[in-house]
Amino acid sequence: MTSLSQSEPLPQPKEWIEAIHAYVPGKSTGDDGKPLIKLSANENPLGSSALALAARTQGAATDPSLYPDPDSTMLRDAIGALHGLDPARIVCGTGSGELLTIAASAFAGPGDEVVYVRYGFSLYEIAARRCGATPVVAPDNFYATDVDALLACITDATRVVYLANPNNPTGTLTSRADLARLHAALPSQVLLVIDQAYAEYVAATDEDGALDLARDHGNVLVTRTFAKAYGLAGDRVGWGYGSAHVTGLLNRLRGPFNVGLTAQAAALAALADQEFVTRSAAHNALWRDWFTTEVGQLGNHGVTVVPSHANFVLVLFEGSLSAEAAFNALMKAGYIVRWPKGQGLGHALRITIGHEADMRAIAAVLRDLVAA
């Protein structure tokens, strides 16, 4: 076999591709490769619905020689029935990440701008740069979305605005009134993408009205995922809802046969098990609130928690105890959490809500660290 000549020219990417930093997933092992209890990726500690697991061994999912339904028809029908939406305006993706990414590709390109809030989901910058658009970062308001700051960033070049609600990695929530105010002030040619990956964890009284906006307006796309409350992170299933104009364009860009046979079957069964989703949300609310209260008692030591509406909390370390020291201590105790220093949050740890024993153990580690 001959080796590649050092002088042979190679295919060169567009300059905007070289500016992309690859998405960094949550770690599952320590620096020594030892497996740890993983609270770095916001996975469901209760696992998956028994109905979803059973669906993997029944029906069409047992014959991998067949292509899946390219349009995920039965799944879209079930999503529409559950949420009172027109299935024709629903599009399914390989996780919501595929839909978030191609939303930028459908509407933006070189010379255009994509706007999102500081400390927003890191995929938004990748989506903007992937299509050659310019990412524009709006200032936050104590780790939360500042609607006025977002609106101040809108120019004639703006094509897409991303807003995660609840936001990842901060857990903050934009209210129904503020979301409606943001949309009302946007030019109609700007697409508002509302990323609701954690919507099932939001209390009914705090529901943000995003699906109503998408139902009534042609420039709103709402995305959701089966990865979190439904416990199907490994199957990579997501969905989006918007006008026929928006979802029609996404259908042109999404991968063919993008949601596999097993994934469609599991997601369809998971939708039928809303008791599992309710139980997951209740477990999360109980231990998120407990953990927030426990860590809140460390405020005199500079350790505080950003109020969260998701299945994780962002813990700030602004005293003598650093996030790095806490991260390493938790690894030593057998836990891996997310240290989002690449997002300008080197002073924080994002901690997924796990089992009761996990949350009690992590709280104890933090108490011991500040007492040392």
TrEMBL record:
It comes from the Bacteria. The modification N6-(pyridoxal phosphate)lysine is found at residue 228. The keyword Hydrolase does not apply. CDD domains: AAT_like. One of its GO terms (molecular function) is transaminase activity. Its cofactor is pyridoxal 5'-phosphate. Pathway: Amino-acid biosynthesis; L-histidine biosynthesis; L-histidine from 5-phospho-alpha-D-ribose 1-diphosphate: step 7/9. Residues 35-363 form the Aminotransferase class I/classII large domain. Gene3D superfamilies: Aspartate Aminotransferase, domain 1 (3.90.1150.10), Type I PLP-dependent aspartate aminotransferase-like (Major domain) (3.40.640.10). It catalyses: L-histidinol phosphate + 2-oxoglutarate = 3-(imidazol-4-yl)-2-oxopropyl phosphate + L-glutamate. Its EC number is 2.6.1.9. Pfam families: Aminotran_1_2. Keywords: Amino-acid biosynthesis, Aminotransferase, Histidine biosynthesis, Pyridoxal phosphate, Transferase. Belongs to the class-II pyridoxal-phosphate-dependent aminotransferase family. Histidinol-phosphate aminotransferase subfamily. Homodimer. This is Histidinol-phosphate aminotransferase.
